[in-house]
Amino acid sequence: MIVVMEPGCSDSDVQHVVKLIRQLGLRDHVIVGTDRTVVAAIGDKRGIDKGAIETAPMVERVVPILAPYKVASREVKKEPSVVSLGVPGAAIGGTRIGVIAGPCSVENEEQILTAAHAVREAGAIGLRGGAFKPRTNPYAFQGLGEAGLKLLVKAREATGLAVVTEVMSVDQVDLVASYADVLQVGARNMQNFNLLRAVGHCPKPVLLKRGMAASLDEFLLAAEYIINAGNPDVILCERGIRTSESYVRNTLALGVVPAVKRASHLPIVVDPSHGTGHAYMVPAMCRAAIAAGADGVIVEVHPDPEHALTDGAQSITCQTFARTMKELSAVASAVGRTL
Ligand code: PEP
Ligand code: MN
Q1: Within 6 Å (CB) of ligand 1, which residues are found?
Q2: Which atom of ligand 1 is nearest to the CA of 240?
Q3: Could you tell me the pTM of the whole model?
Q4: Which of 73, 80, 262, 266 has the most C-beta neighbours closer than 10 Å?
Q5: Model confidence over 211-236: pLDDT tens digits?
Q6: All domains of the chain, ordered by start, with CATH?
Q7: Residue nearest (by alpha carbon) to ligand 1 atom 3
């Protein structure tokens, strides 16, 4: 349930409510909005008398949260969240569209630095690149591991871009977090609840990719695990779902963008690279994502896609990326945003 405080309530009024919530055996989550403070009470509310809280000073009303997710829901927080990527000027959410771009995997120093400079030049705010890769085939390139993380740091030092990279397991969280600015949880791990809790304990923003067969509720409940563990900085990412279609690698479910916007305050970006599997479709689906209301895109860009070690078929060149950014700028202004 949500305890809605009266406008103008003091910090001690809020703390009093927090204390009552804890006495009832529930967990509290205080959200200070632009004109209201609300306190979410989370936990098993069977047998709890909400009247006890309703009579506390400066409490306006107590309302149930209808969605299964609580702290991720728009019922708890009306204003959209803006998540800082941890480097100056880089954020996702709000009116400015944020673009994260780079290769599927970090392959070598020249490749990642070339990609980083090119995407920075074209206006990206984040550099993607996997050092630990979740590969379907155990014989395929698995990523450079820590050496790849070190190259990403070099690229950040050279360009100022925020580094976005995947963490695949609980035991990698501290290592990856010591190099990265944003931790990516991959589609295959969206319901790895221990990993969600572990990144939730980490003071770095999380890019949470939607599982390839996950429903909207499951997606938002996964975000809820991270926020509940103490980390409010979650960026959702639609990356396509499995369907019976075969002309695409995945079906990019753009309808989830307005659905997330209605259900949650969390920002959402779209990954048209994994969402289609084909480089020629990527610019069009980037444009569509921004037109649909996404807060940004994450795109695979490779200086030499023909020789990419992973996901070359869906990687666009640096030149195509620069052209796409110009188009995105026009789409952004058409929908009242900037790039
Ligand atoms: C990736 O971003 O390279 C990746 C493996 O993505 P996903 O988890 O969406 O498949
Ligand atoms: Mn990839």
Answers
A1: 104, 130, 134, 186-188, 209, 239, 274
A2: 9
A3: 0.95
A4: 266
A5: 999 999 999 999 999 999 999 999 99
A6: 2-63 (3.30.70.1140), 83-334 (3.20.20.70)
A7: 104
